[in-house]
Amino acid sequence: MSEYFDNRGLLRAWRALGYSLVGLRAAWQHESAFRQELFVALIVVPLGLWLGAGGVEKVLLAGSWVAVLIVELLNSAIEAAVDCNGSEWHALAGRAKDMGSAAVLLAIVLAISIWGLILLPV
User: Fold this and answer.
1) What is the 3-state secondary structure (H, E, C) of 7-74?
2) Which amino acids are annotated catalytic?
3) Range(s) of the domain holding residue 66
């Protein structure tokens, strides 16, 4: 059987899961911001599932902080890719890292806004 057929279906999904777990482990080991946001998630996600009045509110409350984790992972990936190209400063590299950081900030602002709009009296 050719390599093309070996890398399809469940085997491919299994390998992808392995790569994803390696990525999560790397984020945990090397990214303090990810660890901090994950600790917040351990509190906020269950709290959102408990406080949400219905399915939509539960998903918005819990999912908004999961989105923060996703954006943080993407930001960390951008930073790692930029940093692997050398230690010499470049304006575009700095811009890419700043934009990734801004994306994390916006994700956090969005999560806080969702929590406020759902849980605070209007």
Assistant:
1) CCHHHHHHHHHHHHHHHHHHHHHHCHHHHHHHHHHHHHHHHHHHHCCCHHHHHHHHHHHHHHHHHHHH
2) 72
3) 32-119
**46 and 90 co-located in one domain:** yes
List, for residues 35-88, the tens digit of each pLDDT value: 999 999 999 999 999 999 999 999 999 999 999 999 999 999 999 999 887 778
- Is the whole model's pTM more than 0.85, yes or no? yes
Amino acid, single-letter form, for residue 116? G
Please report, for the domain that includes residue 57, its CATH number.
1.10.287.3610
- Residue 28 amino acid letter: W
Same domain as 57, residue 77? yes
- Whose structure tokens read 């602002």? 109
In the chain, how many domains are there?
Answer: 2
